[in-house]
Design brief:
Helix content is about 40%, strand content about 25%. With about 400 residues, it is an alpha/beta fold. It has three domains: about 80 residues, Jelly Rolls, CATH 2.60.120; about 55 residues, no CATH class; about 240 residues, EAL domain (TIM Barrel), CATH 3.20.20. The strands form three sheets. Strands 9-10-12-13-14-15-16-17 form an eight-stranded mixed beta barrel, surrounded by six helices. Helix 4 crosses helix 6. The radius of gyration is 29 Å and the shape is elongated. The N and C termini lie far apart (about 65 Å). The structure holds ligand C2E and calcium ion (2 copies). One calcium ion binds next to loops.
Length: about 400
């Protein structure tokens, strides 16, 4: 953007904009003085006199872009321009509720100003209008999304109280003997009158609020209970049975997870089964210091950490040395790739070799056919997970699988 679009210089007495004009920018005063005024019956009513660091004209950026007052420089004035695009770019990163609330506040403000200008002395405030802004469809979509999220958040709160969640378990198979070595715990929500809601639909909502911490604690506690039950039926103890649990960003930075983990791990004393925690590649990269500290605490507790979804984000081996993880889980896109392309197969072989050199075990997820499992075995991969060996099932069924 050119310098003159980002800055404005006004001479004393120069008009910047007039009431009723279409506006598409707000301004920050760097130096000088700006008078904001409205004109009624040909008399000027000064609304404000603003100086350095004051911002004005911001209402034109949200909703209806018509200027509700005029602005004029009282002395030579230097301004920074905040454009519509500038704000929109930032708002895109905000959540829909924030955007919707901002637009609503601006609309209410405009209604109030219009009423004050015309009827305040004689009439009561009119009834509120529904939020309809120049942004139209965009705001409708934001509002729908924001309200849907709010509703889901409230339903999740109730679901936790009413015990509507359940953990399902998907087998992870050791390729050396094709036996079940462990399971991944995957949450399910059985919503009354609606059936099963997949985690992809509600975990992101829970993750955007502190609720994930409480749901996360329930998951952890239930996972440990389930592991103890599973371990009791395992007779072939070639390798300790493990259960992996998925973690969210908020849980990692929250204060409740580690004390709960410490408490739960004590319950496994005298047993050789273990809980492993899955942290996604993108979560690790976005929170390097926090994740490193968390992994260090896990090591003290002898809890293994699994790098989940490897290959969906940066897919970079160069940062692996930053995290002392025990296992690398290759995303299912690798399975699809290596089945159709020699180059992909070479990538998987290379990644597996490097992971092994670093002392990591390798799991690949999304294995749906026997040939894919065989190919994974030929590439040196240690474990596979996927529909071929079993879909996620309730605890009783997982236990049955262990017995066979
Ligand atoms: P994820 O951790 O990558 O979990 C693997 C997902 O792939 C599961 O979906 C699983 O059912 C599915 N899957 C397994 N094998 C196959 C296969 O062969 N083919 C295909 N197409 N898919 C397969 P699910 O259970 O719907 O979970 C989706 C995501 O939701 C998980 O991805 C995870 O990010 C999140 N999630 C699930 N449970 C939890 C939980 O307890 N806590 C947290 N924080 N997130 C969870
Ligand atoms: Ca996972
Ligand atoms: Ca995964």
């Amino acid at each position: 953007m050119s310098e003159d679009r980002l800055r404005r210089t006004l001479a004393a007495g120069e008009l910047l904009f007039e009431q009723g004009q279409q506006g598409n920018a707000a301004f920050v005063i760097e130096s000088g003085v700006i008078e904001i005024f409205s004109e009624r019956d040909e008399t000027r009513q000064v609304i404000a006199r603003l100086g350095s660091n004051d911002i004005f004209g911001e209402m034109a950026l949200l909703g209806d872009a018509i200027r509700t007052a005029s602005a004029c420089a009282v002395e030579p004035t230097q301004l920074l321009v905040v454009t519509h695009e500038h704000l929109n770019e930032r708002l895109l990163g905000a959540d829909p509720m924030t955007r919707h609330l901002l637009r609503t506040v601006v609309l209410r403000c405009r209604e109030m100003l219009a009423w004050m200008r015309t009827n305040a002395a004689t009439q009561a405030m009119p009834q509120r209008t529904a939020v309809r802004t120049a942004a139209g469809d965009v705001d409708d979509a934001d509002r729908d999304l924001a309200f849907r999220r709010l509703r889901t958040e409230q339903e999740l709160e109730v679901a936790l109280e009413r015990r509507e969640f359940q953990l399902y378990f998907q087998p992870i198979v050791r390729l050396s003997d094709r036996k079940v070595a462990g399971f991944e715990a995957l949450i399910r929500w059985f919503k009354p009158g609606h059936g099963m809601v997949p985690p992809g639909e509600f975990i992101p909502v829970a993750e955007a609020s502190p609720l994930i911490n409480r749901i996360g604690l329930w998951i952890l506690e239930t996972a440990f209970d389930s592991l103890v039950e599973m371990d009791a039926v395992v007779s072939d103890k070639r390798e300790p049975l493990f259960l992996t649990v998925n973690l969210s960003a908020r849980q990692l930075t929250g204060s409740e997870l580690l004390p709960a983990l410490t408490r739960q791990v004590r319950r496994l004393e005298g047993r050789d089964c273990r809980i492993k925690l899955e942290i996604t590649e993108s979560l690790m990269i976005g929170n390097v210091v926090e994740v490193q500290a968390f992994i260090a605490r896990c090591r003290e507790l002898d809890v293994h950490v699994v790098l989940d979804d490897f290959g969906t984000g940066y897919c970079s081996l160069s940062y692996l040395h930053l995290f002392e993880v025990h296992t690398m889980k290759l995303d299912r896109s690798f399975v699809r790739g290596m089945a159709v392309s020699d180059a992909s197969e070479k990538v998987v072989r290379g990644v597996t070799r490097i992971a092994h050199d670093l002392g990591l075990k390798v799991v690949v997820e999304g294995v749906e056919r026997l040939e894919e499992a065989d190919q994974a075995a030929s590439l040196g991969i240690d474990y596979v997970q996927g529909y071929f060996y079993g879909r996620p099932v309730p605890l009783a069924e997982a236990i049955k699988k262990l017995k066979t």
